[in-house]
Amino acid sequence: MDTAQLQSYFEQSQGTGILSTADADGRVNAALYARPRFFEDGLIGLIMLDRLSHHNLQSNDWAAYLFLEQGEGYRGLRLHLRKVREECNSPLLAELLAQRGKSLSTKEDRFLVLFRVEQVLPLVTAAADSAHA
Question: Which residue, among 42, 43, 38, has the nearest Cα to 9 in the 3D structure?
Answer without folding.
Answer: 38
